[in-house]
């Protein structure tokens, strides 16, 4: 029998099935700026209506949260996570997401699983008024075991040059407002899985995997609601490294984000991990978002307006003078 690509472990037909399952849904994310359709070598996106546009891009993956999804055979939320990790990053600069591309790698392609992951991305793109304009599915036997998947994404947004938010306008007295996370989001799962090895165990009346797989919150609508009403000095997406690593990224030299940790509303699943794993509180804050998915920094006279616009937001600190960039009293 002669060798074929299929005998080497790559089933092209399964790839075609994946495209068939997602093509219509992906097309529903397109708008008049998307000039071609899936199947071209490149995707075309027309930009108009801006005076001095700046493109803002971000790329990220889901990390080992994928292991929880694969072991639990629940794949829909992972696509949302992938999009959110990229789109939330570019929001920090005031950008509006324009388009998204995905990369899916596996050992043996299952079109049902692949389609479920991509359809999660479609749902997230629709929520953010963003077009899913392309992607790549790579079947790589020998690199990945059958049943293994990896997923990453790439998002491009746009902002007027004079409206870029980079933290440079942050000043002493500014208030720090927290937007709650929906859970662990997509960071710290190597430690999560070590402390919680049984994803089927019951936690608060349901299987643990349901809590662990709650998708990363999408902040597009919240952030752009605020940007439409208020001048914002800085925005930080709280991802790997927690508040300790992410807030200093937007704090100018000579200033410090002084945060009262007692004001932070820590999710019960994180308190359970801390207790069960014997994890020090400082390690928790240096690994997880601890219930704060994003922060915005605004002038004190605008703080009440932001809290009014965002029902679940709350104040956790203010900007002071100092050299350490963050002072988190825990």
From TrEMBL:
One of its GO terms (molecular function) is ATP binding. It is found in: Cytoplasm. It is an enzyme of class 6 (ligase). It comes from the Bacteria. CDD domains: PurM. Keywords: ATP-binding, Cytoplasm, Ligase, Nucleotide-binding, Purine biosynthesis. The keyword Ligase applies. Pathway: Purine metabolism; IMP biosynthesis via de novo pathway; 5-amino-1-(5-phospho-D-ribosyl)imidazole from N(2)-formyl-N(1)-(5-phospho-D-ribosyl)glycinamide: step 2/2. GO terms for biological process: 'de novo' IMP biosynthetic process; adenine biosynthetic process. It catalyses: 2-formamido-N(1)-(5-O-phospho-beta-D-ribosyl)acetamidine + ATP = 5-amino-1-(5-phospho-beta-D-ribosyl)imidazole + ADP + phosphate + H(+). Its EC number is 6.3.3.1. Residues 54-159 form the PurM-like N-terminal domain. PANTHER family: TRIFUNCTIONAL PURINE BIOSYNTHETIC PROTEIN ADENOSINE-3, TRIFUNCTIONAL PURINE BIOSYNTHETIC PROTEIN ADENOSINE-3-RELATED. This is Phosphoribosylformylglycinamidine cyclo-ligase. It comes from Chryseobacterium piperi.
